[in-house]
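Cross-posted from the bioinformatics board.
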Amino acid sequence: MKGWMGKIRAFCLLGLTAFVLSACGKENLTALDPKGYGADQSFNLIILTTIVMLFVLAVVMVVYTIVLIRYRKKKGQKDYIPKQVEGNKTLETVWTVIPIILLLIIAVPTITATFDLADESAASDSLNVQVTGNQYWWHFNYEGQEIQTSQDLYIPVGEKVYLNMKSSDVIHSFWVPAISGKMDVNPENENTMYIEAHEEGVYWGKCAEFCGPSHSLMDFKVVAVSQDEFDQWAQDMQNVDPEAEPEDAVAQEGQSLFQEKNCMSCHAIGSSPAQIGPNLTDFGNRSKLAGVEDLTKENLVQWITDPESIKPGNKMTGNYPEVSDDEAGKIAEYLLQLKPTDITPESAQ
Amino acid sequence: MSTAASQKRGFGTVLWDYLTTVDHKKIAHLYLFGGGFFFLLGGLEALAIRIQLLQPENDFVSAGFYNEILTMHGTTMIFLAAMPLIFAIMNAVVPLQIGARDVAFPFLNSLGFWLFLFGGLLLNCSWFLGGAPDAGWTGYVPLSITSPGHGVDFYVMGLQIAGAGTLIGGINFLATIVTMRAPGMTYMRMPLFSWTTFITSILILFAFPALTVGLFLLMFDRMFGSAFFDVGLGGNAIIWQHLFWIFGHPEVYILILPLFGVFSEVISTFSKKRLFGYTAMVFATILIAFLGFMVWAHHMFAVGLGPVANSIFSLATMAIAVPTGIKIFNWLATMWGGRITINSAMLWTLGFIPTFTIGGMTGVMVASVVADYQYHDSYFVVAHFHYVIVGGTVFGIFAALHYWWPKMFGRVLNEAMGKLTFWTFFIGFHLTFFIQHFLGLMGMPRRYWTYLEGQQLDLGNQISTVGAFFMAFGVIVFVINAIYTAVKGEKAADDPWDGRTLEWSIASPPAHYNFKQMPLVRGLDALWIEKMEGKGRLTPAEPLGDIHMPNSSFLPFMMSLGLFIAGLGFIYQVNYNWAYILLFGGMAIMLGSMLARSLKDDHGYHIPKDELEREVD
Amino acid sequence: MSHDHSLNPETMPSEPEKATQEGKNKFIGFWFFLGGETVLFAALFGTYIALRNSTADGPTANELFGLELVFIMTILLLTSSLTSVYAMYHLKNNDFKKMQLWLGITAILGFSFLACEIYEFTHYITEFGFTFRSSAFGSAFYALVGFHGGHVTFGMAWLIALMLRNAKRGLNLYNAPKFYVFSLYWHFIDVVWVFIFTVVYLMGKVG
């Protein structure tokens, strides 16, 4: 099965239009260039169903074209009355049975893959991450490892990672198209799925369940690094000193402002479980600011002074004391130097 | 059409006539104008969506307002445009096709329309009263519970009122078809459009109450502090999804099955052939309807119901492809060997076949669970359901309007404009939606206010937006066509298409009692049989006698108005005590009207035989 | 008027509720309506079953329910269904007075049921503080049983209106379908109660 699917896949990839190929860019967003186990399974089925269905469409279109060419009213046919046919048992049986066979061809691999992707037997021996969906950001808690982080999910490449997902508010959906299909993140029960990336890389993730004004801005990343790099990352993250003083004087001022302005009542640095707002432990290493903006000081100042202009409807707006541009700049300096580890999204190339 | 008469009768009289009418033909006009109005509104919302998505990180509208627009686009198109337009066609055609003088419950028929209209108006009042609903047309909780302001309250009350109207309409058609068929019109001699109306009405009857309950629970949670969906008090958000889709999936078939009937009539008429495999067509429709109730959870593959539930719902969903395939091939076989005339009605039908086949294809593709993990809630799904709902329902409504316009208004729509509408809309449609399959797979989730630069989503979105304007152009041409036809259009003959069914055996537009004498039906395609035997008209089944007709009534309007006022009361009692005046006042108007209806006898009136004799044939 | 005669024939047909086209329509249409009502209650039952254990530390079904009162309510409603059958028997025999008598008894039983239900709800609220807002279970319980109670209330109003309106003029082919359709409605309410008794009260006590 895998062999011929692989061949068909290669063929189809070649055959896809330039438009689609252009989608396989460096941002690893498209589901058409799968780089993970779940995405592979989905892609195989997408190709299989497309082929079967294109065959059906072709049959319909051939008959349709013949009918339109041959039986269109012609000159001199004004009084011609066609034979009134009631039906034809054989024909009708044929176009009932053949679709059933075609559907069986699709149904069998579908069900196999469904059970395969729902298999949780390896969960206890694997890396488990608690994923929390929030309006409009993602929190990741590495179970049993005292590592908390937000927005960038680091995983070791080639390993199954189990995600135990729950929402703190409305329903979200965890979708990293290049690695795996999506699963909803519900407020009342924990959903489990596993992901496995085949190659190192930064994969773009999106919220796929309508969750409010900034639904379209609730992006996140999955950073797949080698096992060694991952171990290094995990160790660094566990050893973070949340109170460490920055070297830079401006950043030091920023640190005390960060405390003065009560930022810590929502945000945490280190493995503290507080998570009203995103965990900022490795903030300086983030691939993006707030999921969508470039991580620059300028953008960060804008975020701190007016988060509403970047993410409408976010929970931070109006819930913190007045911060001047100057103060925001200092806090930004502090946050941008939070780089507890050398393993960054750039490591995943 | 009534315009000719209206010039003589004065505006006030015509208005009063329409406000009180219980005549199914006039109610059809009302549904057409009401549904058409909301269709244009929903179309404007669609254009706003497409303009916003024209380029990455666009800010044509704000994020919150965009969510209101997309919610209202979906809600309006499904509940306030597609459903009423379908009811317009059913009302205009079904009683004529089965040889009835009216529907079983003319009073309820009128009530159904007014409930729909006032429900729709209530929903759209939200634009001017602090913001429209913004939780999507599916109103998923907890988002819809936590949505601030009154937008979602308008959604709840508006849909509840409009939904009640739809349910009443469904029951009315069921009773009409069961009890009022002309002599000799057995079930297996009914034209396919009447059959699909019958089955659609069953779907309405069994599907809408689930929505009613869902909306009640949402209403209680939002307005009266209950805890159905409040996770903190043990509530469960998935219940809403189940209730919504137990209604929502049959709703999809409510939207498409009647149009399957329309296409069957149009293909048969313009191919000059009897419908191929009539029996199979009927049973395929029944099978689709039956399976339609078994597949709701395929909207919930990503919810985490587990592999067993997902597999079962996946198989059931795929199974629907079989009866649908039977239909497509039967239509092709009907045309095979026929003599095909291509005019506007037929063009829409011919456009439908490939379009809907693609929609069906992608339907099977999304039924495959693991593949759906990628498609789900992405633009692929947006493309899929527009291919079936626009490619099936909207194409079908246009086909039906071109086909039955002469019967509804006594004039034929202009052909040149009809063709222009078709080609611009058809091309625009495929431009808009075909590319969205790829946008979805390239990682664009649905209901996205904006997308980022550099993700290769720009070109596809631009093409899509251009297509939307082609569609808008087509619709504008149709509106011009309708106005032009009303003013200058060619007067229609009684039987302009060489039709096969009963509606073509009477005048265009028909007298208000439809049939002077009940026709005797001798088989499928009753009129065609008489034509082939050289008579060209139906044998009466009864001697000429008095005709019993129902009285007009203003009460349906009053009842709906009462509910509209009470709806406002329910919405505002959360913040203001004065709203209770609206609530109880509105309920009093509604219940008072019901009591009046119940206490006052309404025996209708008779058109005496001699008056009928005096009328020219 | 000609139809006055046609609606008041010298000998009533054996099935006066279905003797006219309007009567037939009402009869069929109402059956369809009850089909829709079935789905409505099915959805409420489904919601209740899903939430019946979600008590959020509030009172549970087992703590709340006392079967004695519910048993009396069941007897009242079942009997009222039977008395409405007698009323329909007399409708078919064109015996208006006896029909009104039996409908009157039905109304008394219906009101007694309602009184019990109001007592029951008040009891839960005052004794246990168990309300519509207590927990998801509370919401689901009051929604399901309350919808049924609402149907009973509406049925009572309907019945009283019918009886008063027609008290002086007796039975004819115009009002016979109205009485008949009411009795259909009443049986439906009764059947729903049987399910409520089983699913809510018995399963609440035992399950």
